[in-house]
Amino acid sequence: MKKHLLLTSLLIVALSRCTMAQTSILNTPMDLECHQQHIGRVLEDIAAKGHFYFSYSGALFNKDSLVTLSQQTRTVREILDLLFHGKLQYLEDGRYLILLPAVNKPAMQFLEDRNYLITGVILDRRTGIPVNHASVYDPRELSAAMSGQDGRFVIRVKNKGWPLLIAVSKDAYADTIIELQPGSPRELTLSISPDAFLPKALLLSTPLHRSGDTIHIEGATDSIDPTVKNGIPAVEATGFGRLLLSYRLRMQSLNLKGIFVQRPVQLSLAPGASTNGPLNSQVVNKFSLNAVGGYAAGLDGVELGGVFNIDKKNITGLQAAGVINIVGGSVHGVQLAGICNDDLDSVNGVQAAGLINRARYIKGLQIAELYNHADTVDGMQWAPFFNRTHHLKGFQIGLINIADTSEGLSIGLLNFVRHGLHELSFYADELSPFNLAFRSGTYKLYGILYAGMNPDRQRRSYYYGGGFGHQFPVSHHLAIRSEITFGTLSPLTLHHLDEGNSTIRFNVDAHWQITKKFAISAGPSFDIYYIDHQYYVDGKLYQPISYGPPASLRDNARDWIGWHIAIEVF
User: Fold this and answer.
1) Within 13 Å, how many C-alpha atoms sit on residue 401's CB side?
2) Are 28 and 75 in contact (CB under 8 A)?
3) Which of 50-66 are b and which e, b meaning 16 or more Cβ less than 10 Å from the residue's Cβ?
4) Element (H or E) spanning 410, and its range?
5) Which residues pair with 213 in a beta bridge?
6) pLDDT value at residue 19
7) 512-533: pLDDT as tens digits
8) Cβ pair 368, 397 in contact under 8 A
9) Do the beta carbons of residue 328 and residue 345 sit within 8 Å?
């Protein structure tokens, strides 16, 4: 019995909630009493009690008019009829109740029209001259158009309830917005005021809202925006931006630079041919799929482009393109491109490209098959050929690494640090009296390139190679260097260089800095000589050194203890 009673109670509650959910705003009952109160204040009380919002034009009535209502339970419709004496009509839109002038039956039929075509001309308020390339748009539905050379425009807006909103934006002009009521002319003359110093913001008596979208209006700011260069979006000033973005798109972006919209999904064939329409440069997408390419304000999710993606501001998530990605702001996440990534601000995550990466600041991994460039690297740059940065805080790995200053490590055949180690060494060792080496990088880790020859007939040889070293400071003038080098040795003639006899050498040197530009060093070494081809001189097996029989590691290798003495200039 108790079980059936509980089920019955739950059913009654569910049905009552369902009935409440289906109750319209106008049919909502409420107790309301007021005495000589401003009608604007009374409307605020009604909205608060009914948990909804009013939307209306300030020209409909005087909000300071005083009204009186006796204590009684009435519906919202009954209260409004008493307040406005039947001179207004009401339209529900979600949680909004829109107040409109009462219209006749033909106008009411016009209210059902979903495609409202508006034409007009835009004039300079001061001169009366037509204004071309001005952006005309519906800030709620985001349909848009642009005025022609004669200032004329045609825009189609969706009529989802009065008033309709039409906004006009033009660079160096104040933003202008008008509200169209039933019976307003479809042919408009709009005058806008030139004022380059007014903030880009819209002041509305009705709210901006659209299901699934969030509209954000940026006001004026004194801070420097890295995504803007000389007053235009930085991505549009790049060579690819000028090539891939039409003049019309760039003008639309310039006019609407303070208005941005968040949308869940965007599909496009190319910039301008997008589900976001002409306002695609102002939209931040959650998911964006561009068959050829797309232009958006930013990303907070996933963006895929068959050829290219261009984003004006910041992206967060995954961005991938078959050829190139261009981002004006920061990247947080993973960015992949078949050819090139060009980020005009920072990357926090992974930036990978088939050929080239460029960014202002890298915190994470920058990897390319040809060339990486960043102003600051606080992570790792990896490229088989070339890495470049102004300030290295992490690692560079590549054939050639270049940095202006370094707090990290450059690992490569050639490591150039502008404010680091650059040393030319003339040295002799047990293999040859004539050798030359070049060291570059930092004292933490430097690269070595060397070459030498032994002119003696019995032990003639030519060799070259490279390696790495680290310097341990002992005092102001004294340091200990530890180095490993890998080389190729050609016995007898240079023609044998490609036959692959090789050496590995471990040096430990005492380095004495005599002056700022001059030093000497000396120390022992341990050498391993790998023999791929054997050579004979006057019937005797060729040996690279003259003293003692070298020990054998295995049949094709020899090892010994050697020495090293050098004069070094900086």
Assistant:
1) 31
2) yes
3) bebbbbbbeebbeeeee
4) strand 409-411
5) 210
6) 37
7) 999 989 999 999 999 998 888 8
8) no
9) yes
- In angstroms and rounded to an integer, the radius of gyration of the C-alpha atoms of the chain is 38
Cα–Cα distance between 378 and 45 in angstroms, integer? 57
- 392/41 Cα distance (integer angstroms): 63
H or E element, residue 31: strand 29-38
The maximal CA–CA distance of the chain, rounded, in angstroms, is 129
Q: How far apart are CA 484 and CA 411, in angstroms?
A: 13
- The confidence score (pLDDT) of residue 213 equals 43
554 Cα distance to chain centroid = 56
The yes-or-no verdict on residue 207 having pLDDT over 70 is: no
CA dist 371 and 380 (Å) reads 13
Helices (H) and strands (E) in the chain, counts: 7, 45
DSSP 3-state of 110: helix
CA distances from 458 to 461, 462, 491, 549 (A): 9, 13, 10, 15
CA end-to-end span of the chain: 99
Assigned token pair, 274: 């997008």
Query: Considering only CA atoms, which of 530, 527, 510, 528 is closest in space to residue 519?
Result: 510
d(CA 345, CA 323): 20
Nearest to 198 by CA among 179, 174, 226: 174
Question: Which tens digits make up the pLDDT trace of 359-416?
Answer: 999 999 999 999 999 999 999 999 999 999 999 999 999 999 999 999 998 988 888 9
Q: Which amino acid is it at 463?
A: Y
Task: Find tokens 């739950």 and name the residue.
Answer: 10
Predicted model pTM: 0.64
What is the CA angle 129-135-140, rounded to 5?
135
Q: What band does 90 get if pLDDT is binned at 50, 70 and 90? A: confident
Contact, 175 vs 137, CB < 8 A?
Answer: no
HSE, side-chain direction, 13 A CA sphere, residue 351: 39
State how far the Cα of 221 lies from the Cα of 333, in Å rounded to an integer: 27
Grouping H, G, I as helix, E, B as strand and the rest as coil, residue 300 is strand
| Residue that has been written with the tokens 């920061």 in this structure | 330
CB contact at 8 A, 177 and 256: no
Nearest to 432 by CA among 547, 511, 544, 559: 544
Q: What are phi and psi of 298, to 5 degrees?
A: 180, -170
